[in-house]
Design goal:
Blueprint lengths: L2 E5 L9 E3 L30 E5 L8 E5 L5 E8 L2 E5 L6 H10 L5
Length: about 110
């Protein structure tokens, strides 16, 4: 598989969640194009961090990965109107992970 989604990737860190209940078909070019709860409206905690592991060939855009063991994995953060925030894992799927990986320049 080119992209793998996983959860609960960061602990003991202060997080500011921006996206919750993200549902992607896998064809989106941005995770913000996926269905999701209103930006900033979340019921998440530190144990609900969405993460991905991407197939290498990175080119960064308005999404980044934080706290992973390698540069191609970690907690998913998005930049929305100049503010970085963590994506909650509610409804997180392999298709969501593929979209994030494509946003980062990896194969989806």
């Amino acid at each position: 598989s080119d992209a793998t989604g996983y959860i609960d990737t960061v602990s003991n860190q202060t997080l500011s969640f921006l996206l919750d209940e993200v549902i992607c078909s896998g064809a989106e070019s941005s995770v913000l194009e996926c269905k999701h709860r209103a930006v900033g409206e979340d019921l998440c905690h530190a144990g609900e961090v969405a993460g991905v592991t991407c197939k290498p060939e990175n080119i960064s855009v308005s999404v980044r990965l934080r706290g992973g063991g390698h540069s191609n994995e970690g907690a998913v953060e998005v930049n929305y109107n100049g503010t970085w925030g963590t994506v909650c894992d509610d409804g997180w799927t392999k298709e969501n992970a593929k979209v994030v990986c494509r946003m980062l320049g990896y194969q989806g």
